[in-house]
Amino acid sequence: MGFYLNSEFNSRLGLKAEARKELKAKLKVFTSDTSFKASAEGRIVSQIKSLIVNSGAVVAGFVGMSSEPDLSALYSLSSYSFVFPKLISLGSGDEIQFMPVREYLSEPWNVSPLGFKHPSSNSVVPAEDIDVMLVPGLGFSAFGDRLGRGKGFYDRYLSRFNGLKIGICFDCQWTEQPLPTESWDIRMNYIITENRCVEIEG
Asked: What range does the domain containing 26 cover?
């Protein structure tokens, strides 16, 4: 219990909670204009295609929730092999694993207990076989920081992933300032929005 009573830890939790609240409010406004959102998604897909030039790459995507970029136009391309996260319940808790999806539009998606769509397949693709990870989040910074939704699934998976990590978000989720993070939060190699593709140095 002492860990949770630590004042510095509680202070960081408070900062994260405030940052999440602010970013959710920005997203609500941005995504309320569906045509503007769709235009931004198209530009994000173009940025991703320009960055991932290896036509044989195994790319980990995600099925965006209503406030996240819809990358369906990317997933319909045959130049990459795509895998998607699936929520798996284990004795030690829930985690994500990645499953192959050959036909995005015809995949019989299931709905995870957390509400996001995930593959029906149970054929796990090992982390070492994935070249690129497209990572969703509530916010990203110029320092490569990522602020997730608080469950920690991606951070735990990325801690053992050695491929390219690309944070995907709308420009309203981007900041030049550092985000509140913990030692276990994983930094990105690139951040892509509709207006920028930023390589994170260091």
From this structure: 2-199
Split into its structural domains, the chain has a count of 1
pLDDT, tens digit, for every residue of 120-177?
Answer: 999 999 999 999 999 999 999 999 999 988 788 999 999 999 999 999 999 999 999 9
3-state helix/strand/coil string of 151-171? CCHHHHHHCCCCCEEEEECCH
- What CATH number should be reported for the domain holding residue 190? 3.40.50.10420
Buried b (16+ CB within 10 A) or exposed e, 134-168: bbbbbbbbbbbbbbbeeebbbbebbeebebbbbbb
In the beta sheet, which residues pair with residue 110?
A: 118
Spatial neighbors of 136 by CB under 8 A, at least 6 apart, are 62, 64, 68, 69, 154, 168, 169
- DSSP string of 170-184? -GGGEESSPPP--TT
Task: Give the integer Cα–Cα distance in Å for 104 and 101.
Answer: 6
CA dist 194 and 182 (Å) reads: 27
Structure tokens at 177: 């300032």
With a CB cutoff of 8 Å and minimum separation 6, the contacts of 124 are 97, 98, 99
Predicted TM-score of the model (pTM): 0.90
